[in-house]
Amino acid sequence: MIHLVIDIGNTFTKIAIFNNRDIVESLVYEDFGLTELKEITGRYSIDCSIISSVDRDISDLEECLNTESRYLRFHAGIPTHIKNHYKTPQTLGLDRLAAVIGARSLFPDKNSLVIDAGTCITYDFIDSEANYRGGSISPGLAMRFTAMNANTERLPLIEIDPDYDLYIGTDTKTAILSGVQHGAYKEALGFIEDYNSAYSGLQVILCGGDAKFFDTRLKNSIFADSVKLEPMLVLFGLNEVIHQHNND
Q1: C-alpha 29: how far from chain center
Q2: pTM of the full predicted structure?
Q3: What are the residues whose beta carbons fall under 8 Å from the beta carbon of 175, sequence distance 6 or more?
Q4: Out of 7, 55, 60, 95, which one is annotated catalytic?
Q5: Residue 111: which of 206, 196, 231 has the closest Cα?
Q6: Which of 93, 89, 68, 79 is closest to 8 using CA atoms?
Q7: Is 31 a catalytic residue?
Q8: How many CA atoms lie within 13 A of 150 on its CB side?
């Protein structure tokens, strides 16, 4: 069965074509619309499809997919094989929900902490019994740099420097780099330590645009063996929803 999985985020649209649970092709678009969708459906005979969209009218895409495949819209109330304990599931970001479903599918018997390092950095936990407990949301790296520049008179706008990893800055630029980058790393490390102390055999899964930044640093920590970089975790989760929907 060929599955088309589409994740429309704040900045990019990520797409994967699966043959059951194996990825055949993955694509990333800054601008994605009906033209691009028809190009994909022209190359593949799609059996099932799913879209997760952050905040966009996708009626034209849905109309196309309803014609070309068995289409499923991903939403907060969709039946899944996880037990959602979030008190306001209607406000839960769809990318967060898909990511923990993906974590459960890849590590079914693990206590898993998903760190999605994108526009925001989200921390979401699902235990070995498929209970989604919730998590945390904090500003992403770029958001932190932008906020410091926008809310002060003199601090310059600095871009991420993946090679800078000192915790003491020696001028304004490196002090900002230290505060943002080392601060974000220590934040992530602190969350991992908290969950690891409460749940045995913790698996940490990194995804999102800045995932490599955290992967590099965490691979030098005591948790190196527990960390896995999986850039397409959300897409794996959406594909798993198709499988669950077809089999229920």
Answers
A1: 16
A2: 0.93
A3: 169
A4: 95
A5: 196
A6: 93
A7: no
A8: 6
* DSSP code for 180: I
SS3 64: helix
Copy the structure tokens of residue 198.
Answer: 């409460």
Q: Where are the alpha helices (DSSP H) in 75-228?
A: 94-106, 141-150, 172-177, 183-198, 211-218
Q: Distance (Å, rounded) from C-alpha 222 to C-alpha 200?
A: 15
Please, where are the H alpha helices in the chain? 34-43, 59-68, 94-106, 141-150, 172-177, 183-198, 211-218, 233-247
Tokens (6 digits) for 88:
């306001």
**pLDDT tens-digit series, residues 141-193:** 999 999 999 999 999 999 999 999 999 999 999 999 999 999 999 999 999 99
User: What tokens were used for 237?
Assistant: 């989760």
pLDDT for position 206? 98
